[in-house]
Every structure is written in structure tokens, then in C-alpha cells.
Amino acid sequence: EHLNKFRFNLEEVESATRCFSESNLLGKTNFSAVYKGVLKDRSIVAIRSINVTSCKSEEAEFVKGLYLLTSLRHENLVRLRGFCFSRGRGECFLIYDFASKGNLSKYLDLEDGSEPVLDWSTRISIINGTAKGVEYLHKSEANKPPIVHRNISVEKVLIDQQFNPLIADSGLHKIFADDIVYSTLKVSAAMGYLAPEYIMTGRFTEKTDVFAFGVIILQILSGKLLLTSSMRSGAENSKFEDFVDKNLRGEFSESMAAKLGKIALNCTNEEPNDRPSMETIIKELNDYSVSS
To answer: Which segments of the chain belong to CATH 3.30.200.20?
Structure first.
């Protein structure tokens, strides 16, 4: 009953993507492709097509996962509009709101003087919004259990027209087959998002998400995708020239940068028990913005 409200038919998906036209293709991996689409009501969506062989083979598990995906609702998560299952094509489609400003990685590693440089207040609001989205996932609510995202990165933080951050792919591990979930983690490991204890234990917790969130704070502050030890020591000693993006041309709050640097270092502590919870992080961010 709940799922029927979210069900699209194949004809709607084909019409939205102009029959999966190459010109609508936004990106592709080994197991899925994402297309831009326009629905009948003229709203713009991103449609992810997933090969059935990449989904959980146990139907009850898959349906349970879909149920969870459709019940996630937060202003800092990409909204799932619906899904479509085509046995004929052997594909499952997930229909999401489209985020017009791309993902956060597009705003990192910019050449000196090139666009689009995010200003300081936009960076702060992206950090705040991302924190709120992750906190929502971790919380237990009436119709949703606590969820660990497992794969937070700048590629998974999408930016909408108003520059609000939207976390993508939340809960996807609940419908993907295990081997697909693991293959997506290789990239995270290479980029430094995976907490050291995951590499030891193979287990995800809220604290592994907190680690990845800390990495993202440093990436947003520095404007760089790859973090270096000098950035970390810069954050530790408030040496702003070492960890604050030079493209800001000095237009940032030193006290806020120092505070965020400390939060990022706490989040990326080697010891999971010494990392703060998302709730604590949000409280710190709020306390700070009130006092500054």
C-alpha cells in the first residue's frame, strides 16, 4: 500500500528520459547509470537505472529496502520520488529530484581564478546542512530505524539551485547486493573517507560516517579533494594558510575556520570512541554560530 504511492510505470520512465537517450546520460558505473529526465508535470528528475543482478536477490529483503528508501524524508537528503521495476528490461529505476548545481566535487581543486568558487557563508551552510542530513539518518524515528550511510563523500553531496546540500544514495546498501556495496567502497578507501577501524573490522557504525564527514569539512575548507598532513597540522595549529582555500582571498572568519578545523580533526580521530556524535557536532556548530 505504502509503496504503491511511489510506483512509476516503464512508459513514464522512458518518456522522461527520451528512451534513455545518450544526451540525457549524466553518469555511468559498472552496475548503474543515471539519466536526467523530465516528468509529465515538467519537474526535472535524476533517474538511476540499476541492473537487477546488482540488487538483493531475496525479494522480501529488496522490498523491505525499498520501503525504507521511500520513507526517508529530510530537507538535506535527495528526495526519492518513486521507483519502477521492469522485469522485461531486467532493471530497477529509482526516480530522484534533480540537483541542478551538481555535486560538491565540482567546487574543489579549482584553478586559480576559475569559477565557481564557493564563498565562505555558502561553505558554512553546506557543512551545516550536510551535518543535519547525516544526523537525521543516524536518528531513530517512528517510521525509520537509525541508518548508517556507509559511503559519504563529496560526490554524494549534491547541491540544489539555492546551494543547499542534499545527501545522495542514503540507504542504497539496503537494496544492493553485497558485492556491489563492497565494490563502491574501493573508491571511498582510495580517497581517504574510510575510517581505520572499518579496514580492521569490516563493520560500519555511525562513527564511520562521522569520520567521512570530518574529511568533507576539511575538503570544503581547503577547496581540495586530497588532504595532506600539512592541512591537518594547519587545522591543529590554526595556521590558516595551510588549510583554508586561497581562492577565498582572505574573506573568511578566522575564529570559525579554527573551530571547524578542530571539529574536523575530532571527527577523523583514529579512535572511534573519541569522535563526537552528529548530534554533538550540530550542537557545537549552532553554539558557535550563535556566539559569533
So the answer is: 3-97
| Per-residue exposure over 279-292, b if at least 16 CB sit within 10 Å of its own CB, e if not | eebbebbeebeeee
Class of domain 3-97 as given by CATH: alpha beta
- Give yes or no for a contact between 133 and 78, defined as CB atoms under 8 angstroms apart: no
Domain with CATH 1.10.510.10 in the chain: 104-291
Distance of CA 167 to CAs 149, 171, 222, 253, Å?
Answer: 9, 11, 20, 26
106-153: pLDDT as tens digits: 999 998 777 889 999 999 999 999 999 999 999 999 889 999 999 999
* Contact in structure between 6 and 82 (CB atoms under 8 Å): yes
CA distance 128 to 103: 16
Per-residue model confidence as pLDDT tens digits over 29-76: 888 999 999 999 999 999 999 999 999 999 999 999 999 999 999 999
Considering the four listed CATH numbers 1.10.10.60, 1.10.510.10, 1.20.1300.10, 3.30.530.20, the one that applies to the domain covering 104-291 is 1.10.510.10
The pTM of the full predicted model, rounded to 2 decimals, is 0.95
> Residue 279 is placed in which grid cell?
548530534
